[in-house]
Amino acid sequence: MIDFYPTIALAGSLWQILKETSIFSGFVLATLVVMSVVSWMIIFRKYREFRAVDGDTQSFTQYFRRARRLDEIAGQAQTYRNSPLAAIYSSGLGELTSLKERKNEAGGLRETTVPLDNDDFELVEMAMERSINDELSRLEKQVIFLATTGSSAPFLGLLGTVVGIMNSFWAIGESGSASLIVVAPGIAEALLATIVGLGAAIPAVIAFNWASNRTKRIQNVAHSFILEFLSRARKEAA
Predict the structure, then answer these.
(1) What does the domain layout of the chain look like in residue ranges?
(2) How far apart are CA 48 and CA 53, in angstroms?
């Protein structure tokens, strides 16, 4: 038979600590709880987002490499809207098409294709680099909150700890006794602030490092994709 008494006793003890917590410590604890809840919401959201990015990126890469021409998959690229590579591809293809049209119009040609030079391909690369920055900004959105929580939550917890210890010393001074009954509420308040602070900070730091590494990997894949795109564009223009 499972004994639920320790769990009930622990819940009752926490409730008793919260009831005896000072207003300032209560504010610190509430702030830490809110930061922790928001952090977990961001963590789950980013997990789903990066999972969708990986799936669409893998599918789009396979589709891109099977295509015989760069413009062959222009319409299908919109299907993989979660993949940064699809957005980068659309940006590069749009710039490439625009350059070809402007060159033909400037030369007064309608049917003959004017070959692109190195400067033109540099413009295409710049357009794709801008698209990378836009996509990375999208992926990094809200991640900064995880870094803020990871760096500030321990200090907020420490602040609550200091206040709890100060309350214990204040109780000793008022009662003239250093018995456990006198100092226990303040010490419990201090330890609870420490636990909540670390409980908010540790997952946030782990999630921030994980999200940063995933974003860095996507950035490297995107740069490799640009090189592959430009290589195929030069071959088609030759």
Answers:
(1) 5-237
(2) 9
DSSP state of 116: P
In the chain, the amino acid numbered 211 is A
CB 219, CB 136: distance < 8 Å: yes
What does the alpha-carbon distance between residue 74 and residue 221 come to, in Å, rounded to a whole number?
20
- Residue 206 has a pLDDT of 96
Pick from 79, 77, 82: nearest CA to 93: 77
Per-residue pLDDT reduced to its tens digit, 205-227? 999 999 999 999 999 999 999 99
Can you say how many angstroms the Cα of residue 38 is from the centroid of all Cα atoms in its chain? 12
Helix/strand/coil (H, E, C) string of 77-112? HHHHCCCHHHHHHHHHHHHHHHHHHHHHHHCCCCCC
> Token pair of 170, please?
């204040």
DSSP notation for 172-223: HHHHT---HHHHHHHHHHHHHHHHHHHHHHHHHHHHHHHHHHHHHHHHHHHH
Report helix, strand or coil for 4: coil
- Picking from 76, 70, 110, the residue whose alpha carbon sits closest to that of residue 94 is 70
Nearest Cα neighbor of 118 from 238, 198, 35 is 238
With a cut of 70, say whether residue 71 has pLDDT above it: yes
